[in-house]
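Quick start: read one record
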Amino acid sequence: MKKKLKNFITVNPFSLSFYSILLVVVLFMIGIPILDLIELKTFDLRFLMRGHEKPSNTVVMAVIDEKSLDKEGRWPWPRSKMAALVDTLNKDGAKVIGFDIGFLEPDENSNLQLFNRFESQISALNIKNNKLSHFIDEGKANADNDRALANAIRNSSASVILGYFFHTSKAGLNYQIDPKEIDQRLLQIEPSKYPLIIFEDQKPEYSPFLRAYAPEGNLEIFTQATPSSGYFNTILDRDGVLRWAPLIIQCGKNIFPPLSMQCVWHYLDTPQLMVKVVIYGVEGIQMGERFIPTDEYGRILVNYLGPPKTFPHFPITDILNNKFQKGTFKDKIVLVGSTAEGIYDARNTPFSTIHPGLEVHANVIDNILTTNFLKIPKRANEYNLLVIIVAGFLMGVVLPRLSAIKGALFALGLFLAFIFAACWLFTSLGAWVNMVYPLMVLLITYFSITVFHYFTEERQRQEIKSAFSRYAPNVVVNEIIKNPDQLKLGGEEREISVLFCDLIGFTGYSEIYTPNAMVTILSEFFNEMTEQVFAFQGLLKEYVGDELMAIFGAPLEQKDHAQRACLAALAMRDRLRALRPVWDNMDRPVLKTRTGVNSGMMLVGNVGSKYRFSYGALGDNVNLGSRLEGLNKIYGTEIIIGENTAQLINDAFRLREIDCVKVQGKENPVRVYELLGIFNTALPEETEEAFNYYAKGLEAYRSQQWEDAIDLFEKGQNLYQEDKTFKVMSLRSRIYHRDPPKGDWDGVFRERRK
């Protein structure tokens, strides 16, 4: 329990992903306006990605366009033209005619007022004439454009749907409307209300609907001509884009449908129509067998099929003058409205910033008729929260296990995959799922973990650099920084080479030199030798007294670790030889070293505890390397390598086999070799001859031919007086000659000292 609590409190990838998820969940629940606005824009982009869709052939539009204005005169026209339009459409077989135009005031173009004044004047003059009275009555009838339109509507076999609008709030009006006037207006449009509301899980008093203050209806003469009317109010999102169409608005006690809904209802021959309300709000509208899903307020997302003119446009002037193919409007829903610049209600939609409001109604009608709806899942919030949590958790689990590049590619892939999935759901299933908040949790989680890794790895790099810069060359340190995992507490078994170098008799100088002088001499010696180790990318393990230990092949893997160790040993020897005359002139001691090199499988890694550890190597082959360094004292050599190292370097160096030795603590004997130089090292002729005698003498020694061995070793000694190995082996041969070894002698020398 404490461990789990610690994961939340401390800063780590798990806690960062958890708090990233928590932050985005909180932001999603409270709703951030700028983020919600971005989500709306992604919704619009999904339309553009989907592209244009072909509408059904049911809806067409009779439009007041620039051509019609040029031919018929400026707007508003006499309503006699609208009457003629209704008659023409009716004759061509239109089934529904919907007016996106309000007939709210008497016709200003009517000549009725002229006949009324003429009649008043005749009456004032007390003129009695039946023919004149008949002429006036006939003229009044012909001059009443409103009556002409009302008669055309009343006599139309096509259902004529009139449009009106609601004042949504009292504050939006610059005048007062008497409550009785509001009641009168509501009574006028009451025949167009929804006939039935079903409350499945709520009481009838429950009202989730959008509310309006007062209706602004058509003249009574028109509402009496047809009881069918629908509002053309729209709702804009905060960015001014029209995405939602309200299918229900409550005013007073009743709820009313829009123009588009009325057109569809009458087109389908007025099937049973009811609004279904459930516990969370409006579920939808049942129209016969067709169900129209809405949000909890009774709105639908408009599934725009394309940009303006997606639906067929017919200029009204062409219709009035019969310039259209007969049957064009047969069994169609004809929407009448304006598209001429300056006199139409331009709407901002996902496809266009100037979209005729008339065509918005057309899209809604087509959506309902084809049931091609955009859907927001009823449990959309739960779904979006689940996606946020899963996306953040996935990033938090996977990202820490990947390298920087792979992590970036994974995050980018997940980011693009979610965008693709959201767009696919929209284009294929018509489902709108939130895109911004899930993408936000991906970004926040990615950047928080990346920043954490950056600072953590930077600190780790500095620690590694500080720890290793004095023990390894820069190239090795840089490689370690790239892969710091290999420095964790613990290790791995790997074939490497170790080098031990020890000063001969340095402690004896303490009687001659002061402690400060001893430290200075030793420091300069270590500096010079360490530079040779670094030159071949070895790792300085440690200084112990006057001994130096180096590792080759770890932590940076080197396939030629044995060659590097041998080259470093030779470089150390040559550098020390070069420094002797310099130090001699400085009245310093003539330093000599013994070096041992061994290769094999060893345990390498950080050894120690969580409080203190260091990088090093362990194993029998490490101990053997130290023993080989000590063998130099027996044979008088400078550099001895083991047989494993000799096998790995092949013919790259000149070697001399010295002996076969079983060192203290080892069960198996090992052949040891003196490292003389690289393969093309030239030796004096006498030295070459002496080494030949040594090789033959060693062969005679192992064959127990003691006299021959003594003779060969002494011949070599005479040629190379400085080499102690001849004297050692000659003395050992004499001893065995006097007292031959007993049993099955294997020719192995057993070292008794550590």
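The chain has a mean pLDDT of 87.
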